[in-house]
Recover the amino acids of this structure.
């Protein structure tokens, strides 16, 4: 399995180093470090990571640094989004936003929303290294693609106990093909899960409760 690790980089290389170890970066993988100005402390952190990978794998792990300019946030978001798109063919794309400036973290999150490959994982490590928090990518998908009134109506009905296509169609006064289309979109967003395919039976996920109280 090929892994691409994209990590925000600040003065300290520890977060990037721990992410490399945690995800078992190996031959054939790719590491992209994202930072703003390459000041001396950031340059030292990058060089430490580069030498670590070079010593372990030679040139068999591709490592690079992307510097983004904060003067144009839109351009910075696009540059990061383009990097994410470059690696969407990998089996796993990990975006670690533990290091670097807060504005850089926001830029990377917004860039994730532009692409959102299916194999994306977004994580952040606590400052004291005590835990890793994985962000629900489904939330980013919802922000990128608002539900719309029709999908909200279907989701509410599912949350209220209607779980089959025929029942939803009758209750909402919509044809079954429309209901199936909305359910497919809701499943992709992580708001419902399919319990049975034939006949189609669904239920709401915990994430749905955050979106529709």
């Amino acid at each position: 399995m090929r892994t691409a690790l994209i990590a925000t980089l600040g003065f300290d290389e520890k977060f990037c180093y721990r992410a490399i170890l945690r995800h078992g970066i190996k031959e054939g993988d790719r590491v992209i470090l994202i930072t703003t100005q390459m000041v001396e402390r950031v340059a030292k952190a990058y060089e430490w990571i580069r030498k670590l990978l070079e010593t372990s794998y030679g040139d068999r792990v591709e490592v690079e640094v992307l510097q983004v300019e904060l003067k144009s946030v839109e351009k910075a978001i696009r540059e990061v989004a383009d990097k994410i798109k470059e690696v969407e063919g990998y089996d796993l794309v990990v975006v670690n936003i533990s290091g670097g400036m807060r504005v850089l973290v926001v830029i990377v999150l917004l860039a994730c929303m532009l692409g959102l490959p299916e194999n994306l994982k977004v994580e952040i490590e606590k400052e004291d290294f005590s835990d890793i928090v994985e962000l629900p990518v489904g939330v980013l998908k919802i922000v990128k693609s608002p539900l719309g009134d029709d999908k909200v109506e279907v989701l509410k009905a599912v949350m209220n106990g209607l779980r089959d296509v025929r029942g939803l169609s009758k209750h909402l006064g919509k044809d079954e093909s429309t209901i199936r289309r909305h359910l497919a979109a809701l499943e992709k967003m992580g708001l419902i899960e399919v319990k049975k395919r034939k006949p189609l039976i669904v239920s709401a996920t915990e994430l749905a409760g955050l979106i529709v109280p």
